[in-house]
## 1
Amino acid sequence: MSESEQQSGHVPDGHAAEPPLCVLLVDAAPTVAESLSAALDAVDRPVELVVERTTDDALDRLRSTELHCVVAGHDEGGVDGLSLLNTVRDTGYEVPFVLFPAAGSERLASRAISAGVTDYVSRSGEGSYADLAERVATLAGKSRPGAAIRGPEGAVREMYEVVSDRQRSFERKIDALLEVGQEVLGTDYATLSHVRGDEYVFEAVRAPDDTIEVGDTLPLSATSCERVVTTERTLVVEDIGTDPELSQRMGYTDWGISCYLGAPVFADEEVYGTFCFYDDTPRRREFAPWQVTVVDLMGRWVSYELERQRTKERLGALDDLNQVSREVTASVVEQSSREEIERTVCETLVDSEAYALAWVAEASVGGDATVRAAASGDGFLADAGDGSFEGVTVDTLADTGGDDPEPERLGPTDRALRTGEMVVVDDAYDRPGETAWRVRPREHEFRSVAAVPIRHDETLYAVLTVYAERPSAFSGEEGAVVRHLGEMVGHAIAATDRKRAQLRDEVVELEFRIEGLLSKYGVPPTDEPVRFDRVVSLDEDFLLFGGAPESERGTVEALVERTPQFEDLTVESRDGGGMRFQLHVSEASVFTTATALGGRLTAATVDDDALRLVVELPLNVDAKEVSRRVTEAAPSATVLAKRQTTRREPSAGGGRPAALDELTEKQRNALETAYRAGFFEWPRERTGESIASALEVSPPTFHQHLRIAQGKVFDTVFDERAGDGG
């Protein structure tokens, strides 16, 4: 049993709730303990003094007690404080250590400094005890409770307790390991970093101030970690000022980082980052070999966990891709349109959380790519303005001044469009990218990209581009499944096109008569017919177009004013005493029911006080449901006729114009709204800005949709004429 004793120091006023500082005194003379205890009573901080008589007992105390400071005497025939100091430092304990020799000398002081002593006080009477007490209280007050008192066994034990705790998340385990490392090494700073190209990103931070925060970035070349990354080995530097190369870096010259111990972290057999500890003062002694081993073990565990997480993410992504495949198949069975299939693919990929952004683009005039469908998570497409992504043009030559670039300078989407082959980028930071919506990998944490051709036989429809926050997300089996997904979407589009061609001209026509339409709202009957001839579907409401004699302007205005669903009437007079009008319909009505369900309005005429309504429905739309909704909106409605017929829309071949089949819904809406609003008349009756406002999109988006729609229509018309010999 050790000859130890415990002497409680005085608790000053105002410090009763403050935990006492624990100070170990190692000295064989009882009078030293009594004098120091009395001196500690006078300091402005509660201190608990623990006394051991031998160095062996002192080392046992170090291993079992959280200490703030050690005071050791040095006396021939008594305690060898210098030997104890060497043992403490060699073992890796960084607790403040004060040597208090019975007879001091310059030689002893020099040897103590070399051994890593924190302070040195010569014993020269009662005054020296007061000086010692003040210094001890100051040093102990700055020491973190329990900091740096663990030896190798304790450090490894704490590491195991952290990593085996199933209740802690990965992030909490990282923070706990950083704290253990700080205490083992006695450093103020501890970080987990991630290297992105030439950038150094702080992913986890423990620091005494807020000068470093999670998410901060630095040039990798400014840090000592760069050497760890390039050599893929642990770096140990007790005094960076003595390293000719590291001492020239900004980390030392500007931030004062003076000692460093860091291990590489690996993922997918590449350096992910570093797990490192550093301080702004040089170390007096070398890092002990066991301390380096502890940091190595921490780095290896982090590497293992990152690899395990990525494997789990890959398996989850494969499950998600299988779900996407099932939904694409269901879309074909349900006779969905090409637009719905493309939208389903993008939305399902992003909803899976395995991917951050997905979009489908097709080649357009000028060599650019036009986005047909897109979906993203967490606001990645916030720069798209009004959120209308379809029709946005990707300037794929933006980074090359418009010249035809070399293949390696192209973005993945453009390369896939040009070559018809799948393009995979394992690290998007090192690749030029598309400029759509100013989407840039560095801004949005994208790590890998796959551009997958959507094709069937020799036809390349478009390219599906998928972004993931994981590096190398599309290598191995996941890449093969994504490639197969592109093929499946191509088959689905081809099947949909075949079905659409078969059903293109065959429709079901429903004719309704609704009595009392005007009198219901207190509007006088018409003297001449008022017709409603087209409905354009917007995101949440509709545009309704019509025409009437100028003499019925008052009737139209009164109907719009008194009908709750109608608003924002615009009237344009025409030559010959007629007028055209446009209005917003904010919710379902008899005019918009068929359009909302996939049909279209072909004729609607108000004559006297009755409405004659004719709608066309594709064969796959439930006519009974349309009838039910019309009668629900207008209880007086009666069905006059139901017949299967051909479309009323004329064309050179007698069926639906092929040019319109090439347009997306929003492109057709832009073209038809512009046409019916008089945008193509001379002089122009409506501006592009007013039409964009009616369509609830920005003017640039409207003009983008309109330009692409015009180009497709002209392409089809002129191609047909060339084929006919015209």
## 2
Amino acid sequence: MRRYIYLFVRSFVRSFVRSFVRSFVRSFVRSFVRSFVRSFVRSFVRSFVRSFVRSFVRSFDFKHFLTLLSSFSN
């Protein structure tokens, strides 16, 4: 009888530990992936915006813009 109780407790503890570890690992991986993706997207967007602004400022013709403004205002 004692052996059956021991086996039952052992299997119960094993399944409990397995499910606990699985849920813990799943939540950890999910939060890690979420933070990684968030930081990656943030850095990507930041670099993209920076390069876009830089290229826009380089290609921007200020004199042309002023002449357009003056033509609109007239």
## 3
Amino acid sequence: MKNRLEIAKELLSDTGFIAITIDHIELFYLGTLADEVFGRKNRIGIITIVNQARGRWMDKNFSASNEFMLVYSKEEGTNMKKRKKNLI
């Protein structure tokens, strides 16, 4: 996974950012890798995404109802608010 993050960083423009979704099982591992590759200071945030309010029926313990999105910028000081709308 680390090599994929390194390639993704190389492909980003200097003002670019990356958003990665992950479940709670791998959240801390991926966050540690992303901090190493992009730099902790470039972590813009962690967003909670509710995907099923009742949880997943197949979980044995807690019913997971959400995933997480890790957002990192390539360079320190990237301002996401200045992004143009309708880029797609």
## 4
Amino acid sequence: MSTSGLPSCGANRQVLQRARVYFRDVIAVLANRQRLGWPECASAEGREHVDGLVACAADNFRFLDERAVFLAAMCGKSMAVEMNVISTAEARKSLQQSRRMELLTTLAFVVRVLVKGPSHSASDFVTQKGSQVLHVDSAQLTYAPIHGPSQHRYQIAATSDPLSIATAVVGLVATAGKICLALSTFVSSAIDAPQSARDALAAVEDVRLALDLAKGLVDTVTNLPSNRRMLARLNHIAITFSNCVFTLSELESLICYKDSIMHRMRWAWCEKKILRLLPRLDSQKASLSLMVTVLMCQSEMEALAGRDRLNAAVEQILQRDEEFAARVRNLDEMHVAENQSTVRDDGAGIRGPFGLRFVDQRYAVFGV
């Protein structure tokens, strides 16, 4: 990856070469359409109109081919140009946003909705906003520019395979482990390390353990009774995991430096910001633990009591972090006004936090 988070020059050149092959194939097909047995219009006026459209399309593809040649020639110079144009601060911000988008997208794909009735086939999760489009399926994630009018479209579909929480939290576990490693190295190597650094390390380790516990739950969750699985509400899972994404990514930007070195001066510079995030980590750890408790407890009374505590914990998260709560409310209000038919025509769905589309929340995220 380059400094701005864009693919490297080698990757760009390979993409352009494949694009040129496609462009030349299309031009050849358009030029030899009569030999290929394309149907023709009966009227001369119709044939003239079609010929004009084909000629225009061929000209457009020739222009794209010429543009690809130019861009391929510029790939060798792009790194130097990019380093001169993009400042270090902008590059770092771009990488952080890319990381956050990847985590949120993975979360959005895995928190898939299981609806009543026969199983549905897997389909892509698509987010289209402005001039960029993001595609996610079970095999890969792609992110590319598009052309056309600005619009929003969110789609999240059921799949026939079992739901895997482990896939959703694997990025969070990796980020928490990276933060723990940086803090542990600082605490063990510094003489008389600040107590605040030890407190931050303990808080992140607790969250990592809670995430590991949630990830391991996937091995047994399909064996639980359906009434127990229905106690885990979609909005609780979305709020808890999404809040973890924002908090851990912010901690990563404050603690994990490119040179992997944290010293007293850097800690003193970021200490207040880091300490303000610790109460959020405690709330998220409590919510994750309660979520697991609701699903794994032995009796129904314990499950109902755990669900009530989970409701209170989620409300506490929203009350403690006013900025996060405002973001959830704004996104909900923005997407409530959208036409629901862009995602689902049967009217059975509702909008959840972050603009994700969920079915009626009476249906559990783990299936019915």
